[in-house]
Every structure is written in C-alpha cells, then in structure tokens.
Amino acid sequence: MKIFITGATGFVGKCLTELLLKDGHTVAALVRDKSKASALSHKGVITVEGTLTSLGLIREEASKANAVVHLAFIHDMTKYAEAMKTDGDLIATVIQALKGTNKPFIITSGGAVLGSVDTPADESHPVPKGPSRADSEVLAIEGAQQGVGTIVIRLPTNVYDSTGSGFYKMQAAKAQEKGFAMYTGDGKYEQSNVHVEDAAAAYVLALQHGKPGSIYHIASGKHSGKELAEATARKLGIQSRGISPEEAAEVYGSLMSIFFALNIVMDSSKARRELHWVGRYPASAYFDAIAGTL
C-alpha cells in the first residue's frame, strides 16, 4: 500500500513510519522542515514539503494514496482554536479527496476529550460539550457515511518511550525548578499511558482490521498523580506534596494544570477485540521510563 502520513517526524509518527516501511509499504510524508525531510528520504520515505494548511497539496497526495494517516497537530495551547480549525479543515479536505473510495483514513485524537471520568471509559462514553478534538472526531466519523474508511485512534495523555513522555518532562522540570514534586489536591486522579511502540502498532492494525466509523482507545497502563509525583521525588531526592488547583495554574498555566489533573482511565477492550491489539509493555514500564528521564 501507499500510505500518506502527516506527523511522520513526530513522536508516534517516527515509530509508525518505521513499522510501515518494515512491512513493505510505500510511505509519503507531509514535511515542513527540510532537514527532517532529508532524514526521512534517506530511509526511503517520499517526502512532500508543505504544512497542515497546504490543503491543495494534501488533497492531491491523499487522492494518490491507498490510505491516509493523520497524526500531526499544532500543540500550541495559546492558539488552540486556530489549531482546531486547521485540524478540521485538513480532515474535511482528505474526506473530499477519498469520498466514495472506502480507503482507510485514520485520524488521531486523545482521551482528554472525555474530560474526567469516574470509571474506565470505553468508546461509548459521552463526550462533554465544548471546544476539543472531539469536533475533529465527529467530522471524521461523518466521513464514513460518504464512503471513506474513517477511523479515530484515541491516545492517552501519556505516550512514552525509554526517556519518558513529553508531558512528564514538563512536570519533572517544574519539580526540579521548585524543589519539590507536585500533584494537585489529593493526587488520586488517574491517567492512562501507553508505550510509543504499542501506540504505533495500533495504527498498523487499524489499517488492517479497523471498521469504518469506529473509535478505538489505545492504552495499556495507568498511574495516579500522587504516584507520579512520589516517583519523581524519589529519583530527584526531594519531597512531594499536593498543591491547590490555583497553585497548579500558576505553575503550569491554567489549561495545562487542568489537563494534568484530569481523571482519564481508558478501556481498550474494543481495540483488543477488533484490532487484535495487545500492549507489549507492562504497566510498570512507565515508571521504569520516567526513572531514566531524570
């Protein structure tokens, strides 16, 4: 298959690209940075220079591909509305390019669209109203009614490798800066995690077994805010303690402080059942990874 990818140089995208090439697929990647394009070209990837707003180019590349995987997102919390519009425009463009072909089109979302949940949430759990990547999910799912094999992959807050996760590194840096590791309130809120290799494998399986119009949760472990802070404190030789939501907002910013304290445990039974996905990394691997971060 020829697969067109956005975000091929990103955290999950790099791993997915390697898996697809290993399986013998042809990969075309939208790349903004010329230096990163060169690195991909050396691996045998067809590079397409452009940005997420190069809609004409994206339409053309999508129409030439057997499948499209959309991983890229503008992670600028100060311009979230703009990022959401860019995401929606790109998804709508690809749907128009693939309309009536039934070709797979996988988009990426996150468990954060669920807000805080009381129990492990599966894909049928209601999504709160308000601006979030759920808007992109709705757009994608509607594409299945137009003859496009749209699939949504929801990743957890913490996707990690042997060096930890991006969000954790932000929290660890603040702990080093403040001299103590922090959790909000009593720290009992829990969040799912998944190793990047397991996350990338889910996309490959979704291309093979995913059902159009479906959402899949991809998560294999979980941790509480307090557990995370205590692990950080032990590694750094400092104390851990709870802080108020107001203090957390001062430390991380208003939006990220809410994000870090969400209670989001995802149920991945559907992915295991329909995609035959199994996380290879045990739940303990996350704490092993963050220990190597500091």
UniProtKB/TrEMBL annotation:
GO terms for molecular function: aldehyde dehydrogenase (NAD+) activity. Residues 3-219 form the NAD-dependent epimerase/dehydratase domain. SUPFAM superfamilies: NAD(P)-binding Rossmann-fold domains. One of its GO terms (cellular component) is cytoplasm. It comes from Symbiochloris irregularis. InterPro entries: Epimerase_deHydtase, NAD(P)-bd_dom_sf, NAD(P)-dependent_oxidoreduct. It comes from the Eukaryota. This is NAD-dependent epimerase/dehydratase domain-containing protein. Pfam families: Epimerase (PF01370). PANTHER family: NAD(P)-BINDING DOMAIN-CONTAINING PROTEIN-RELATED, PROTEIN YEEZ.
